[in-house]
Amino acid sequence: MKFDCIVIGSGIAGLSCAAFIAKAGKQVILIERAEKPGGCFSSFEYNGYHFDSGIKAVENAGLLFPMLENFGIMGKLNFVKNRVYAGFEDKVFSMESDESLLEYFDFLGERFPESRSGIEDLLKEMQELNSFMGSLSGMSGPLYGKTTFLTKLKSIPWFLKNGKKLLGFLKKLKYNNIPFRDFLKVRIPDDELVSIIDEPFFEGTPAFFGLAYPTVFRDYFYPEGGIERIPLTLADFIRENGGTVLTGTEVTGILLERGLPSGVVTDTGQEIESPIIVNAADAKRLYNKLLPENSVDQDFLQRLNRAQVSDSVFSVFMGVDTAPENLDQHVEHIIYVPAAAKPCDYESPEYFKTTGMEISIPCMRDPSLAPAGKTGVILNVNTTQKALNGWGRSVSRAEYERLKEQAADDVMANFFRLYPSLREKIEFRIVATPFTMEEKTLNSGGSITGWNYHPSETFPLRDFRKMKRSIDTPVKNLFQIGQWSFDPAGVPVCLITAKLAADRVLNISRP
Predict the structure, then answer these.
(1) With 90 as the cut, is the pLDDT of residue 325 above it?
(2) Is 435 within 8 Å of 468 (Cβ atoms)?
(3) What is the distance between the alpha carbons of residues 278 and 475, in angstroms, rounded to a whole number?
(4) Do 309 and 452 touch, CB atoms closer than 8 A?
(5) Which among 54, 95, 91 has a CA at the least distance from the CA of 380?
(6) How far is residue 274's CA from residue 248's CA, in Å, rounded to a whole number?
(7) φ/ψ (deg, to 5) at 114
């Protein structure tokens, strides 16, 4: 079997890249180890409940919807607005408008009066950045179409209107190399308040992204049918355009001839030929397991292996015997801090007793995602494989199971502070650790955003001006896309690098 291009991994980056290539009429094969495509866009069902196992909502960012429209499949997906709330103790605040954001910060100012001036400074920085980012919705996006003079001309009114905001935005790019927590500590003297504001973010998250999150939250959407509807629809598009989606198959090696890609070997022993390969999966696995030995410089390999991966998540999926309208809080998505926050210390034995969480309720966006009169709830907590002394895996399987159930008890106890009426109504729970995430996705350490966000511990490019180079690898005609290609990563990086690689593939394979 010979193809113009092989794409390894069917997360949103791999699917998007393969879709662009298939649309252009090239023979592309997308290979995925799991039985269904999706990666961190996956979902599963249990006892009639639908749960999203990875991302809980998607941001458009001026990228996702234009891409789906470019493929002609936007009409096959019905997106509803995903409202995000901030919760502290027993209070919940909307993030949907500047007014509601101000209400939240006013509350924090009353709670921490000695930090009021720092809160005002933070709010000003957020408003300046988000003023520009909010204006992006008016810009025509040539990324998924031909960049002609006409498309550029259409953007001139936008630039005339928003030029000043653009300059302010460029100045704030300096915050991409400053951890958000460090940014907060300079302005806010109270460590507890710093931890409350920093709670949703992974350790080392750049201040630029922390400041931008009010706008990001307002750009969240949810597809009816669950997150998996996006990858399943993209996979159908690839097939309909002559591409191949091969699931339930693991790539175990990459073949090289005279230093160039010639194909891959799968876990069934099958060899699939192609002169171009796009890796949309784990970069550490690419260089340490898939490529032949000595394919890349040892200094490069050592630097890659020294770099730290991003945080992972601990998840609790619950079936609740009550209808959504009876919940203590009638909201679908909350970033919740249960009580006095402490600096993030994943390895502390007390971490799961005090940490905040992300609460997601799929059936409040789409009632069909839970049995009638019942509610599915997902709790996510940032953590790593190092927590609880490696989750006791070095001791025994029984110790691992004991520690993950204890962590679930602790997280749920905090959840019940906000939802006290649900304490006696839990039908079941399914618990997943960072090791579960690694097992399902093959991402090193169970990483959910690729490389560690901290500038001193990451591996790939961090300079937005050089993003086109982020897909290159030391092996010609082998490209890396998605969350392992650029730092800090997220859905926008996955979509951008997918398009960059697809364009490169099409240029190489052009007759």
Answers:
(1) yes
(2) no
(3) 11
(4) yes
(5) 54
(6) 20
(7) -70, -15
Tell me the residue ranges of DSSP E strands in 197-282. Answer: 220-223, 244-246, 251-257, 260-266, 271-273, 277-279
Q: What CA–CA distance (Å, rounded) separates 511 from 502?
A: 16
Distance CA 80, CA 74 (A): 13
What is the chain's percent helix, strand, coil content, to nearest 5? 45, 20, 35
Is the pTM here over 0.85, yes or no? Answer: yes
Spatial distance between the Cα atoms of 465 and 122, rounded to a whole number of angstroms: 26
* Residues 228, 362 contacting (CB under 8 angstroms): no
Q: Could you identify the residue written with the tokens 């994943």? A: 346
> Which residue reads 């998540």 in tokens?
313
Domains of the chain: 5-43+62-75+225-307+449-509 (3.50.50.60), 97-217 (no CATH), 311-441 (no CATH)
Q: Which two tokens stand for residue 247?
A: 């699931």
CA separation (Å) from 85 to 168, 224, 474? 27, 20, 44
The gap between the terminal CA atoms of the chain, to the nearest Å, is 20
Query: Concatenated DSSP letters for 98-116?
Result: HHHHHHHHHHHHHHSGGGH
Minimal CA–CA distance to 218: which of 86, 108, 328? 86
Q: Give the integer Cα–Cα distance in Å for 496 and 498.
A: 5
Mind listing the pLDDT tens digit for each residue in 131-184?
Answer: 766 655 545 444 665 554 455 555 666 566 666 666 666 666 777 788 899 999
Nearest 5 degrees, angle CA 271-CA 273-CA 276?
Answer: 135
| Polymer length of the chain | 511
CA dist 84 and 93 (Å) reads 9
